[in-house]
Model the fold of this input.
Amino acid sequence: MDLPSLLICILLEVVAVKCQHIVQERIVGGYAPVPHSIKYIVSIQTRDRQHFCGGFLINKYWIVSAAHCNIGVHKMLIVAGDYSLTIYEGTEQEILPHLVVPHPAYNSTTNNSDIMLIKLRAPIYLNSYVSIALLPRQDATISEGRVCRVSGWGYTSPSGSQIPSTLRTVKLPIISSGKCNSSESFNGSITENMLCAGYSIGGKDACQGDSGGPLVCDGRVYGVVSWGRGCADAQFPGVYTAVSKFRRWIDNTIFSYYSRCNKF
Ligand SMILES: *[C@@H]1O[C@H](CO)[C@@H](O)[C@H](O)[C@H]1NC(C)=O
Ligand SMILES: *[C@@H]1O[C@H](CO)[C@@H](O)[C@H](O)[C@H]1NC(C)=O
Ligand SMILES: *[C@@H]1O[C@H](CO)[C@@H](O)[C@H](O)[C@H]1NC(C)=O
Ligand SMILES: *[C@@H]1O[C@H](CO)[C@@H](O)[C@H](O)[C@H]1NC(C)=O
Done:
């Protein structure tokens, strides 16, 4: 992107006009939520503070994200309580991860089981800017047409420079797995561990850099931003890891590390 179009784009963003063809790599077609109203979301960054994925807090020590966001525990930094990534707001809490637990069945070819737990070195302090997200019960379903909300900071362009970015959010309906898995769409690539959400006319979606972030329906995180084809394409909705398929794994994993700590 050249400088003039970047500037035009920022300007358009300021007057809240969609600038989809240029800012493709962020939540597409969404809006900026009230600052600090989405308190469970975290930014996952490199140690030199480049945002690359989202995640969400499920308790003071644990974050859920996508397995494909695993760049190695020693390269990651977790930021909670953030809104603008470029402005210091005094509400941020930066914590290093202690360990990462990508799902053992994660397959980067099929994208199946794209979920990861991150344990923090120190507990996050819960306050009016940071809280925890609720999860659905094991195997809880969410029906087609239910409107959910996905949030994230999007990403820099593949070539580099980051647009000053505040959190974005967009509301999307659930699309049935049947429709999403059909030959008109993902043609057999959707597993029972995935959820699809988006509009059949396209225009609204999560996008690269939103990966790992929460899709919230009825006050619980039913989806983790996982993959797609392009962004906001009418034919291809966003694909999310179905959190309810992993609720037992999440609880068991957290419990196993908890008991291990207590033994020593
Ligand atoms: C991933 O899935 C593909 C297709 O089912 C399979 O061929 C491959 O062995 C799997 N990879 C791993 C690491 O399990
Ligand atoms: C897995 O996700 C990538 C995008 O991250 C996509 O290009 C690829 O087609 C997906 N794999 C399958 C088997 O659908
Ligand atoms: C869908 O998948 C089937 C079986 O894998 C394949 O034969 C067909 O060509 C695919 N259709 C499209 C539109 O890609
Ligand atoms: C999607 O289609 C493939 C191929 O037909 C099938 O194996 C898979 O179980 C389907 N997924 C769901 C969620 O039904």
